[in-house]
């Protein structure tokens, strides 16, 4: 399965919008007191993508006029494809990590690095969308996991996105994290994950083709 990666992502939503994909970066810093503000948008119904511009006309203009506004339908024949070996991902195994409900997604704040040919990035967090935020050739995946990175110098953002399909066996990392999702059903709730190993995920990235696309954050 090909993986999706969006490098040097254009931030089209202003800081007034609850940008869950950019949470923990300079675009949407974490609250010092740990409080999670209520979400100002959603992914379906009256707060879904088709109405993001209407939710805050002054702040969300780009949601209506932008040409790279997430979510989008990625067409394989028109996307740049790189070798996964060109992306050096490093995330240390950890005995546990914080796992929190942001209202729009569930997220694990964690550190790591991503090295590309042109930029070095620091991992800020990873989170989930179900069903997948983006489509590939008109098809949704059951889930999509976003690993969000920020460059220290120019503050550019990179998101490595792993599409996920339901299968007979659990992915070692995702299965471990999501086993605790039932503990954080309310916005603002927090729990701890079991020990996390990123070895399989890193090998998967480095051994597969990678789609590269410039998009907005949502």
From TrEMBL:
Gene3D superfamilies: Alpha carbonic anhydrase (3.10.200.10). It comes from the Eukaryota. SMART domains: Carb_anhydrase (SM01057). Transmembrane segments: none annotated. It catalyses: hydrogencarbonate + H(+) = CO2 + H2O. Belongs to the alpha-carbonic anhydrase family. InterPro entries: Alpha_CA_prokaryot-like, CA_dom, CA_dom_sf, Carbonic_anhydrase_a-class. GO terms for molecular function: carbonate dehydratase activity; zinc ion binding. The lineage of its organism: Eukaryota, Fungi, Dikarya, Ascomycota, Pezizomycotina. This is carbonic anhydrase. Pfam families: Carb_anhydrase (PF00194). It comes from Scytalidium lignicola. Its EC number is 4.2.1.1. Keywords: Lyase, Metal-binding, Signal, Zinc. Residues 1-19 form the signal peptide. It is an enzyme of class 4 (lyase). Residues 39-218 form the Alpha-carbonic anhydrase domain.
């Amino acid at each position: 399965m090909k993986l999706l990666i969006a490098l040097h992502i254009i931030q089209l939503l202003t800081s007034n919008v609850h940008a869950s994909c950019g949470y923990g970066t300079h675009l949407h810093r974490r609250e010092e007191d740990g409080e999670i503000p209520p979400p100002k948008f959603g992914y379906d119904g009256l707060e879904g993508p088709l109405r993001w511009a209407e939710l805050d006309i002054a702040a969300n203009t780009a949601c209506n006029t932008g040409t790279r506004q997430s979510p989008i339908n990625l067409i394989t024949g028109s996307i740049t494809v790189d070798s996964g070996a060109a992306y050096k991902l490093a995330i240390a195994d950890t005995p546990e990590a914080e796992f929190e409900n942001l209202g729009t997604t569930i997220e694990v704040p964690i550190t790591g690095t991503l090295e590309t040919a042109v930029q070095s990035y620091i991992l800020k967090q990873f989170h989930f969308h179900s069903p997948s935020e983006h489509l590939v050739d008109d098809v949704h995946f059951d889930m999509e996991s976003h690993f969000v990175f920020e460059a220290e110098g120019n503050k550019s953002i990179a998101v490595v996105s792993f599409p996920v399909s339901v299968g007979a066996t659990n992915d070692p990392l995702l299965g471990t994290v999501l086993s605790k999702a039932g503990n954080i059903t309310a916005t603002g709730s927090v729990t701890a994950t079991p020990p996390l190993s990123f070895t399989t995920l890193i090998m998967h990235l480095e051994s597969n083709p990678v789609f590269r696309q410039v998009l907005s954050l949502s």
